[in-house]
Amino acid sequence: LTLENNCIVIFGASGDLTQRMLIPALYKLYSHQKLSSSFAILGVSRSTYDDQSFRDKLIKDLASDDNVDHESLDKFCEHLFYQVMDPENKYEYKALKQRIQSIETALKIKSNTLFYLATPPSLYSVIPQNLAAHGLNIEDDGWKRLVIEKPFGYDLESAIALDKSLYQDFTEDQIYRIDHYLGKETVQNMLVLRFANSIFEPLWNSKYIDYIEVTGAEDLGIGSRGGYYDNAGAMRDMIQNHLLQVIAMVAMEPPAVINADSMRDEVVKVLQCLKPLNEDDLKHNLVLGQYTKSHVRDECLLSYREEKGVPEDSRTETYIALKMFIKNWRWDGVPFYVRTAKRMPTRVTEVVINFKKTPHPVFSANPPDNKLIMRIQPDEGTLLSFGLKKPGAGFETEPVAMDFHYSNLKNSELLSAYERLLLDVLKGDATLFSRSDAVSACWEFVQPILDYKKNKFDLYGYAAGTWGPIEAEALFKNGQTWRSPC
Ligand code: BG6
Q: What keywords does the record list, in alphabetical order (predicted)?
């Protein structure tokens, strides 16, 4: 897929996402000559800037990086523009349209426009409607694409309503829903590991796999995002989107070819097989927790309820552990244990495939563990652990490992998730973007938990900086347990 000249219009241009993620990613692509020969980035928001002050603000962090080439940064800045506007005011879109056209004419850009909504979700319906009212959704003279960031809705009902509203003016092909986990090299690598290697795929089913763990642990608390997080909780923030997408990558069937339709058809098929959670699951297979104050080394870690923007009686979960199943031929009876939390001892995202023990213990009563660990971050790589003979007399076994680290590869600089996804959307490749039916399938699966939380429910405390409430141990049976990643 080739990259045509284009104009990227970022709504919410004065916000955090634009400054921290989008502009650094676009600059990196630019400095690696991955953007088209002519392009423009037009920032839009209510804040008062002009082109120059916008450029100065955005590149402040980049310019202070010692490794940055200032000449190329200055050249990049020439592509940045700014327009003050209230995105809720439909009358201001006429001026926006004119500005886009004048930039396109000046830079000789064909009318290919990407509208990136780095705004609060409350604007996800309004902006597309206003764009359409001014014909900015029409693809007569070039493509028009819309990027939206999670959360896609707040629950199943609002997600369906959001799609309905978007579809009034844009087609599914024009809509790119970003789940940045799909942009991670190591998440995509799970497909390659499974489907490009005949040593793994034959074992990838309920006959050989005992259970699967998915951990998304963060050591940080919620920082300054109390207002957002308290309405979301770990369920909406991490499970509904990122971790269910990871599970889809682990559990899906091989696509016939790698393209947007084929891949996303397989993703949705497996998500639609998630076993619906019933009352018994909510009681026995779900543990919700919230971090409490603690002292780790010399640091005093606040409790969640003491964080800025969080009500002091909040019952929002910062920890969730869930035992779930996939009801299909491949996975029948294999438990998937998923956990995610803020304020754990370390930051680690990984998937652990725990293989079954050999059927007859020849060497010792307890055959060695066979585990395949896919480390998504931060130490990206793959670890296979198994047993070998202990040197010396007899036939005792001892655990050994084969450990691959991406950092050992030559030329191993990984594209960040935003770099990869921005490049894909500019090329028109939707393979790594969430399709509407997959988003709905995820909401459908988590909706019983959201309903359960509306009533009285158990919320367990865990000291900040620990692995979560001990009650989560009760999810496991028959010697299954979490791997300790550090
Ligand atoms: C975001 C969540 O979507 O993902 C954050 O809103 C979370 O709360 C983040 O910290 C995790 O992303 P990553 O790439 O750091 O694992």
A: Carbohydrate metabolism, Glucose metabolism, NADP, Oxidoreductase
Mean pLDDT, rounded, of the chain: 95
State if residue 113 touches ligand 1 by the CB under 6 angstroms criterion: no
Minimum CA distance residue for ligand 1 atom 10: 218
CA 184 to ligand 1 centroid distance, Å: 12
> 238 C-alpha to center of ligand 1: Å?
7
Mutate to test the pocket of ligand 1, among 148, 154, 218 (most ligand atoms within 8 A of CB): 218
pLDDT bin (cut points 50, 70, 90) of residue 275 is very high
Catalytic entry in 70, 79, 134, 242: 242
Encode pLDDT of 445-473 as tens digits: 999 999 999 999 999 999 999 999 999 99
CA 485 / ligand 1 centre spacing (Å): 19
- Residue 242 is among the residues annotated as catalytic for this protein: yes
| pTM for this model (two decimals) | 0.94
Query: Which residue has the least CA distance to atom 4 on ligand 1?
Result: 238
Integer Cα distance of 352 and 209 in angstroms: 11
